[in-house]
Amino acid sequence: MRILFVGDVMGRSGRAAIAAELPNLRSRWSLDLVVVNGENAAAGVGITETICNDILAAGADAVTLGNHAFDQREALVFIARQPRLVRPLNYPPGTPGRGAALVDLHDGRRALVLNVMGRVFMDALDDPFAGLEREIEACPLGLACDAVVVDVHAEATSEKNAIGHVLDGRASLVVGTHTHIPTADHRVLPGGTAYMSDAGMTGDYDSVIGVDKEEPIRRFVQRTPGSRYEPAGGPATLCGIAVETDDRTGLAVKVAPVRIGGRLSPALPDFWT
Amino acid sequence: MRILFVGDVMGRSGRAAIAAELPNLRSRWSLDLVVVNGENAAAGVGITETICNDILAAGADAVTLGNHAFDQREALVFIARQPRLVRPLNYPPGTPGRGAALVDLHDGRRALVLNVMGRVFMDALDDPFAGLEREIEACPLGLACDAVVVDVHAEATSEKNAIGHVLDGRASLVVGTHTHIPTADHRVLPGGTAYMSDAGMTGDYDSVIGVDKEEPIRRFVQRTPGSRYEPAGGPATLCGIAVETDDRTGLAVKVAPVRIGGRLSPALPDFWT
Amino acid sequence: MRILFVGDVMGRSGRAAIAAELPNLRSRWSLDLVVVNGENAAAGVGITETICNDILAAGADAVTLGNHAFDQREALVFIARQPRLVRPLNYPPGTPGRGAALVDLHDGRRALVLNVMGRVFMDALDDPFAGLEREIEACPLGLACDAVVVDVHAEATSEKNAIGHVLDGRASLVVGTHTHIPTADHRVLPGGTAYMSDAGMTGDYDSVIGVDKEEPIRRFVQRTPGSRYEPAGGPATLCGIAVETDDRTGLAVKVAPVRIGGRLSPALPDFWT
Amino acid sequence: MRILFVGDVMGRSGRAAIAAELPNLRSRWSLDLVVVNGENAAAGVGITETICNDILAAGADAVTLGNHAFDQREALVFIARQPRLVRPLNYPPGTPGRGAALVDLHDGRRALVLNVMGRVFMDALDDPFAGLEREIEACPLGLACDAVVVDVHAEATSEKNAIGHVLDGRASLVVGTHTHIPTADHRVLPGGTAYMSDAGMTGDYDSVIGVDKEEPIRRFVQRTPGSRYEPAGGPATLCGIAVETDDRTGLAVKVAPVRIGGRLSPALPDFWT
Ligand SMILES: [Fe+2]
Ligand SMILES: [Fe+2]
Ligand SMILES: [Fe+2]
Ligand SMILES: [Fe+2]
Ligand SMILES: [Fe+2]
Ligand SMILES: [Fe+2]
Ligand SMILES: [Fe+2]
Ligand SMILES: [Fe+2]
């Protein structure tokens, strides 16, 4: 199976990159499963129903979220009717939406998409380790589904590393989001799970993690409140990770970073043409 | 000028990679300046005089530190007699050692090496932005020195991004350390400063950021104290960044990630042979 | 019912105050229920079986804990055989010990003692609000027990305030611990629950929250590691809260701070003689 | 000298208590110096020029601030023309306003009022210990002024304890603010400085630290964003500390908590009538 995961789409610039690139990638690479993190898609914070639909229409099978999941308050409502929008599974019971989506692919195969939030340097949510165990035991890779993709929305590399190892052999891909900077530690772990600490954002990197740089720099230096943060408006780099899995096991056999456009050095998988 | 920066050397595994690779790299690439972060070189926390001397002997011109700078208490003493060991400049006045080193290179040129700590999600130190301004104004690139290398030891990508932009055009290289995971956002910023949010560690990546994975995973899951953290003992990946500067300006013209050995996908500069 | 809660016993000085005062208070005030927080009783961090037994022998019906619960590693073992030692209930399932103890009082009545940890500015544990709901629904005040005492081991006053309001009318006493400084907001909440944001420690207040002040002050100023923290050795103030409940409802009718000995201004309930 | 310090005035409820009580207290107790923390005076966050003037007109000689200092953006401007409004001294150089005010009292004596912010569990500012040293060395108690009052706006009791000890003998009063809950550790330290870890807020205590309790409780439980925080509207408790100093030394001889009105148990100094 061919899987593409795309990191935090940041504002208008990020959405433009999705619209311009994702349909082509989907068809050119014959992708089976595309997951996009959309927690910053609407003006840099949260997601609206229109934007969620646009990302799905551009070629995503599922959209994941993070700490900004509900910053656009309408997401608390429309998430109920959008089964392909996945919020962190470790929100407390009763939170609108779902933390796991079992997605039917074009050919009848099924992929489990999970989103979870870390707790180191982040708000307190339920235990991500226990929550992931529950979801994966309920729908084991190779038995109940053909792929498991886990978006670990977290700050600390230690927590992401730990989750990767814990799930190794039981997920097709464990990929981090939230720091908005792609890491270069993509690899297949010993047990067969593709791993990358952060997919990076899909946004303008001439910025402070996607935000127009002037105000955050001013705040770092002056330490006083000021104007609102605005997404940087320059061309985005679409950032993510490409994974090829073994159809018999659902585990990863090949992995490569994806970086298209914008300011970062380009990267494409050499195993798809 | 040819510059190599190597990220956090982690314990015995990291030291072995330095000993095995650095002398060769130094001569093969005709490096002019080599800086190595050594905050985890001694058993994963801190640095001893013997280990510092070993890293310098292997080909480093300067060794930088971070939040673990003084975990080996002897560093509070020997740092006074080791002018090539640089601790974060934003420790309070009176802290042993120095946050800036002006290093004489083999050919008489001089490089300013700075080490600074971020404050987001980290212990409170003095203002890194103000401290960097002071040091760089005191020894401007192109006027008082031929290269400026800044090791930003910090957790948050936002703070690292901001420091990169603030110093753009005034440093040869701004590179992050501390997360122990290399980022893939290496580039030359618009003003001519090479930038990478994190160099990554030089250690065994089959681990939790360099620590033998069993105990940190147990703590994440069980939340109770247990045994000591031990550095993972498998083969290390030497991680860092290669920068070629313009000799007239001291600014960067080429930049590439470096990853040699161990578990990560290899990366070498294609502009040096 | 007459209830005394005593805050974090800090090292030898705190234990001496317990030994000297608690037996007298128990008999003089004809106390029905005494709960003591013992998370710092052993050398300032954790508790041993001997020390736990000493506190129980001095007149406590139950001993509660906090973030230092297992700093003396033997507590991971002996807590299994000590039903009156209560650790935070929001440790993950499988943690040794219990977060709730149903204590049989001398006259056959029963008291539910709960210990929970906050998550603001503290390590990530399970949801304290959900955990408290579960325990209190399982053993409701006035139906299944005659008193409910909740030790909220937390840093942030906001979280403690919120827990107090949520449990108002369902607990006899909600009292905070962990900051080691007594608050002056003791009162009966509108629904009948006695509340105080922090009981204060039972330790030497000529200190930095019970620690010999020299080293913590040095670290605040110099920001470098140094010698171990040692409990301050001067005379302790026994700090806590006295509550009189209505025997029919188990809710509070009178509340007063208790401060005996040491450096703080003395306080005793005027409703017991 | 007779000094009254009043803690964080919270919204309309807190302002009403100031207007109703402070003029009477000032005359009844023949107060020489009144300092009021006003960081939450305007709708719970920040302060406006009108509100600052009202607090001064009600009997304050100086108004101190904290992390909410500039939440009402106009404070960045009018603080320049209001010498009795004091913001934390450890904002970076160039921040509008001042961190120290030398206030002329009615009888010609002079009081130094300092405001500083802690760094534990708070935003990164400059070193509070170094900043306080500078200010106090520039205007020593007994030599250049007749009283020194320090408002330590901080979360952690450890940091407040440490600052108290460091300034003991060099300040008339070191009092904490920010947690919005009064502590009961008021005392004269061995060197003669009056100390209290937190003055408490002047606001409605039937709340979550002054905020109408419904929304903060909902957020603690549900972890999703919701409506704005609004100050609780019930009757406020005016909270603070009363200090009598020795006119020859400026050091404290008597200290007592002050709690008037609202939900908390009342407290008044017994040494003034
Ligand atoms: Fe994001
Ligand atoms: Fe995020
Ligand atoms: Fe490190
Ligand atoms: Fe570090
Ligand atoms: Fe404690
Ligand atoms: Fe504690
Ligand atoms: Fe406040
Ligand atoms: Fe505050």
Adjacency order of strands in the biggest sheet of chain A: 4-3-2-1-11-12
Largest sheet of chain A: 6 strands, mixed
Could you give the count of β-strands of chain A?
12
From the spread of the alpha carbons, the general shape of chain A counts as globular
Q: What would CATH call the architecture of chain A?
A: 4-Layer Sandwich
Oligomer designation: homotetramer
Using a beta-carbon cutoff below 8 angstroms, give the protein chain pair with the largest interface and the number of residues from each chain. Answer: A-B, 42 and 42 residues
Q: What ligand molecules are bound, each kind once?
A: fe (ii) ion
Overall radius of gyration of chain A: 17 Å
Report the CATH superfamily of chain A: Metallo-dependent phosphatases
Question: By helix and strand content of chain A, what is the structural category?
Answer: alpha/beta
Q: Report the mean per-residue pLDDT of chain A as an integer.
A: 98
GO molecular function (chains A, B, C, D): 2',3'-cyclic-nucleotide 3'-phosphodiesterase activity; metal ion binding
Binding site for Fe cation 1 (chains A, B, C, D): 8, 39-40, 180
InterPro entries (chains A, B, C, D): Metallo-depent_PP-like (IPR029052), YmdB-like (IPR005235)
Binding site for Fe cation 2 (chains A, B, C, D): 39, 67, 153, 178
Q: What does it look like?
A:
Chains A, B, C, D: Fe cation 2 binds at residues 39, 67, 153, 178. Chains A, B, C, D: Keywords: Metal-binding. Chains A, B, C, D: It comes from Lichenibacterium ramalinae. Chains A, B, C, D: Fe cation 1 binds at residues 8, 39-40, 180. Chains A, B, C, D: The active site is at 68 (proton donor). By secondary structure, the first copy, chain A, is an alpha/beta fold. Chain A has a single domain, classed as Purple Acid Phosphatase, chain A, domain 2. The first copy, chain A, is built from six helices and twelve strands. Chain A has helices at 11-28, 49-57, 75-78, 128-138, 157-167, 214-222; strands at 2-6, 33-37, 62-64, 85-86, 100-104, 110-117, 147-153, 173-177, 187-188, 194-196, 238-245, 252-260. Chain A has a six-stranded mixed β-sheet with strand order 4-3-2-1-11-12. In chain A, strands 5-6-7-8-10-9 form a six-stranded mixed β-sheet, with helices on one face. In chain A, strand 1, helix 1 and strand 2 (33-37) form a beta-alpha-beta unit. Chain A is globular. The two termini of chain A are 15 Å apart. The model of chain A has no long low-confidence stretch (mean pLDDT 98). Chains in contact: A-B, A-C, A-D, B-C, B-D, C-D. At the A-B interface, helix 5 and helix 6 of A face helix 5 and helix 6 of B. Residues 39, 66-68, 153, 178 of chain B line the site of one fe (ii) ion.
